[in-house]
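Work package 3, deliverable 3.1, input record:
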Amino acid sequence: MTRVLGIVTAALLAVTAVMALVVSPPDAVQGDAVRLLYVHVPTAWVAMYLSFGVTSLASALWLWPRTRRRSWDLLAGASAEIGVVFIALTLAVGSIWGRATWGVWWTWDARLTTTAVLLVLYLGYLALRRVPADPDTRARRSAIAALLAFVDVPIVHQSVVWWRTLHQQASVLEENRLLHPTIHGSMLWTLLIGLTAFTLLYFWLLVHRFRLARVEDEAEDRRLELALAERRAEADVVPA
Amino acid sequence: MDPVVRFRSAVSLLGRFPALAGVDLDVARGEAVLVQGPNGAGKTTLLRACAGLVGIASGEVEVLGCDLRRHRRAVRRRVGLLGHAGFLYDDLTVLDNLRFSARAAGRADGDARGALARLGLDGRLADVVVAKLSAGQRRRVAIAAVVARRPELWLLDEPHAGLDSAGRDLLDSLVREAVLAGGTVLIASHEVERAGALASRTVTMAGGRIHPAAVREAAVVA
Amino acid sequence: MWRDALLVAAKDLRVEARSRVATNQVAPFAALVLVLFAFALDPDRGVLGRAAAGLFWLAVLFSALLAVQRSFALEAHDDARDGLRLSGLDPAGIFLGKAGAVAAQLAVLELLLTGGIAVLYGSDLRGAVILAVTAVAATVGLAAAGTVYGVIAAGLRVRETLLPLLILPVVAPVLLAATKAWDAGLSGASGEGWPWVRLLAVFATVYVGFGVLAFGALLEET
């Protein structure tokens, strides 16, 4: 099952690459730089919505007593790890694209700023997860931290949107005006296939990361049984 | 029998270490039970579990008739734990520390002053900042903080440690008074003779469990 | 809940009044930050005057970090955190009390810093209403968010380094909104600032609500 998913993902990624580099035309304004779009938009979608959404949802499900399963915590952590990689990728590709089209590596545009804050929030979350603790403690702590980050992101976004619009028109808005009316035909298809490919890639990575976490967790449980037996054996050494 | 403490196959984890590995224990109201055993047997964890300070991974624990997992707060207001640490704020005066302890348990300032007098801390010492006290005085304040809560269940972890002989005698009389007043006491101690004299019964812990021999003995008593 | 909040806030403020860490260390630190900004930026070209609001709130933000760390450091000593859990106080009350004490200290600090930017940066304190309302909303938000993350990081060995990493990105909107609102107030265009005050109010409400709900679960973990 996972293997099929892996093969389909790889195939779609290959198709995306061919479509993006060969089939789709260069943009009228941006030239070949537009091809970065086919990586940038899908990674942004995976990072900002998919991975962050899955982490938040899994954390909420862990906190809700009726749906509390160890797996939700592991899933939240696995998704966050992939999310961080994809956010970093999004920022890196976006930065290169920005350099090619706007002439700068970074601009304090609302979306960029929110993404950067999100990356730091996520890094904090993962740092918290790495602090040694027993599984339930860690799960509770991380789940609450994930939800805190989740409620924070809309506020961050709102604040930076206002921050920018009060000063000047964000350059991405112009960008969007340029892109959206002209995006059609092979460009749209390339983008859609790219989105599908990266979404599948996310799930493929998630399944593998989650399985690994499960194996670690089971090993932990076995260690606990062993520890219990050892602990009880201590009593035999002591005279009554 | 009116059980104040009831453990059934209770397992408690400290991190990944099973400090309690299946404890069965019944303590009735008005009993004073000495828990003895070697270092690392789980005595401290047992007392902390009674106060809901360590989680119960499996099994059941009821204290003062309440399931600890659901009514932890209600239980805590009615127990007093004297631990290795004193839970004192260094920058507060003796009286302020006792007041905070008493009020948190829903008691009045009068109880704080009463405890102060009972431990011989009234007068000059009352307004001294805890950081400036000697270790022995500090220990007395920690005991007073428990007394000020007027607990129904006293959990005393090595209570005689760090006290001078007058302080030890004072502690003994406090425990006897508490039992006479209908309180229940659990003492974890290495000083088997001293603490044993206070106790109506002794159980032995080893390897995170109450030693089977001691449990059988307890069953006969019950 | 409110009774417990008052008890905890009074206790924390009393500790601060006695130990004088806030007055002897945090306040001079904040003032120092204001002076250092003047060194870093060119004071003659009016840069400081234009950046006054941002520098003010940055100084408040750093001080808030210290205040939160201090608030939990005093619970770390002598296992006072266990004492707090044992006390049987309502966790929501403990949260409100600790956040309230942090907010009170920050409020005093902000008054001092306001004098600081007026004197050092030559800021005109026009639009006093919006300055005050902004300060209240931002302070509540900072104290609430800080206290929630403070308890998450408390008790971890890496808390000093982890806490800033957790708090700073979360309170980024507070820095942004409070700076913008103060910019508007200081430049005499209060009207532009009010949407930012609303944002601050939303932030404060969200985090106070979150703290009240989640603090118990966070305090209980061992």
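Chain A has one domain: 35-165+182-222.
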